[in-house]
Write a structure and sequence with these properties.
The complex is a heterodimer of chains A (about 375) and B (about 160). Chain A has about 375 residues and is α/β, with parallel strands linked by helices. Helix content of chain A is about 30%, strand content about 15%. Chain A has 13 helices and twelve strands. In chain A, helix 2 links the parallel strand 2 and strand 3 (about 80). The longest helix of chain A has 16 residues, at about 25-40. The two termini of chain A are about 15 Å apart. Chain B has about 160 residues and is mostly beta strands. In chain B, strands 7-6-5-8-9 form a five-stranded antiparallel β-sheet. In chain B, strands 3-2-4 form a three-stranded antiparallel β-sheet. In chain B, a hairpin with a 4-residue loop joins strand 2 (about 45-50) and strand 3. The model of chain B has no long low-confidence stretch (mean pLDDT about 95). Classes of the chains: A alpha/beta (about 375), B mainly beta (about 160). Chains A and B meet through strand 5, helix 4 and strand 6 of A and helix 1, strand 1, strand 5, strand 6 and strand 7 of B.
Amino acid sequence: MAKTSKTKVAFVGAGYTNATRKLERPETEIAIEAARMAIADAGIDPALVDGINVQVHHYPPPDTPTIAAGAGMTNVRWNRDGGLGILPAGIAADAIDNGEANCILVIKVMNTIAPVSTPQIDPTSGGVAGPTQFEVPYGLGYSMQRVGLQARAYMHRYGITREQLAWVPITERQHALMNPWAVMKNPLTMEDYMNARWIAEPVNLFDCDMPVNGAFAFLLAREDIAKDLKWKPVYLKSWAGNKQNIGLQDHLWAEPLAGVSPIAEEIYRDAGMKPEEMDLWFMYDGFSYFVPMWMENLGLVPRGEAGNYVQGGTNIRFDGRHPVNTHGGQLSEGRLHGHGHVLEAIQQLRGNAGPRQSKYNNTAIISSVFPHTGAAGILSVE
Amino acid sequence: MTSGNSVPNIQTTEGQAQLKAMGIKPVPVPDEVTGPYWAGTKQHKLTLQFCTACSDFQHPPFATCRKCGGTSLEWRDVSGKGKIYSFIIDRRLMTPGFDEPYAVLQVNPVEAKSDTVRITTNMRECALEDVKIGMDVEVVFEDVNETVTLPQFRPAK
């Protein structure tokens, strides 16, 4: 999606299974269920859905053709698997814009059979090859440890405190209590947060997202198709991902960003919009610290100001001017790997978010994955 | 391994716990890019990649300069003195080869101009509660086995 786009592309369908702490049914079955829900939600003939993207983080993955067949997709002519949240949405939208498909289903299947990251150690020799040879021999092998290093440097640089940033998980929990899909069902207080056990200090239990199992799907279609479907179209105005060849470790030696990130400049330019026009902010929260970092990277708050901005929670609550993660985010709805943010943005922009509905719902900005290496996009009802 | 022994599946939490119980100590596997760094530590020298075009070090080593993309990289010995850029205290991740709690540091060598030059390391000879950002530290070399020596850091003397 860029100035060169020939067509507009919209989100037209959303489908969810329940998010559960354990995998309760075969993953192919839940993927098909979410796919059928998204197609039914759009009110489109599944034979017209001619593209599919499936993303998992475990091996072996479920069979994409089986999922497509189970969803009734008899005319698949586009398939590219992988990517989290706004990234596969953007890739699908570009494919539609290029005429490669008319309507694409994007599904995330979460299966907690495998942790998202583990130290890659040869189980017989203890050898660690490749980029992590400078980390794992020092006991650094998990994402939350890398995030902890980044978070401490970030807070130190700007004088931001944990008491300020605690309002991210606390407010997200308030939102989750209004979201029937969310796995977390009890309130989270400042006292709970400050007394939580450390995982990798400064990262504590409530700074980490909640692993869940389930399948989560959304459907994108070309504008002329979208206009005839059930809901008002939610357009993907622009998106951008980090174009560098990047790895898990890159943020460990990354330059702290001074202004807004290059991908933010790109999405505002391509959408012809400004940061202050973004109503709802869906900030990727695999770890709580990503939320303030993304807000600053995207130019939504000035560099170093996110701590003051989130303090007290009123600025980021569902009834504030720029609600953040009204579904509860991955910290409290569950780890949907960026898909939860996209699905909630669709519901908010349709006006379907129930008790957590924001009255400011013309536009949304979504970020996915690590602030140094992720993707972002802008959604709008126009 | 014989068929009777099961090799831990390192993609799972259980496999990582098995590795830890087996006392497996993770060690670097040098390659064509990283070899000179580990050859240096074996001789108790800290030697880092230096880009002559950018006039600055880079670490971890890479085939090209991450900043300018150039290949005018050479290896230069540094003093082993540095400052703590950031750190974590690992409390419960059950990482193979480590007993919690332990500190993981990122150290900026004093010779580096950019604070993006960060050596990941552990803390030695210092209580965990005394570790601070900006603290002056110096290298100590620990021979792990016959072929591997890991640089570690302690408070500067």
